[in-house]
Amino acid sequence: MADSERYSAPGCWAACTTFGRSRKGLLLLSEIVVCLVILICFSASTSAYSSLSVVELVLATVFYVIYMCDWHTKMHFIHWPWSDFLRSFIAAVLYLVTSIVVLVERGNGSRIAAGVLGLGVTFLFGYDAYFTFPLRQQRHTAAPTDPADGPV
């Protein structure tokens, strides 16, 4: 059993690093890092708005692990492109609203930094929503123009 784990580890590691270098992997990693920085900034000033950062940090991490381990192809009871699109779109809207509220209230420096970073992560989540929009990804094939039973 130890030998089979040892031989499967390089394939698993290659799959992990391959996804980490893809566009979706880099988007999710940057969302995780920026949400963590925003959480630290909100925690330094006030804990009133930190729940949004915690929820989005956890959701981005869960989606990163699901895509990295290729579980989205094995679990068919959830439509992964739509759920990922809704996650990123809702996060973009909520971060936009929260950042505007935080910047209008004018707090200390870390609170202003969290508001400005929130505006930046709004564009990041918005790009992720645009990139993962399922209807944009569907490709249509041309219909055949010749009759099926030959020329007439």
Automatic annotation (TrEMBL):
It holds the Pfam family MARVEL. GO terms for cellular component: membrane. It is found in: Membrane. It is a multi-pass membrane protein. The chain crosses the membrane at residues 26-45, 85-104, 110-130. It comes from the Eukaryota. InterPro entries: Marvel (IPR008253), MARVEL-CKLF_proteins (IPR050578). Residues 19-137 form the MARVEL domain. Keywords: Membrane, Transmembrane, Transmembrane helix. The keyword Membrane applies. Coiled coil: none annotated. May play a role in cell differentiation in the intestinal epithelium. This is Proteolipid protein 2.
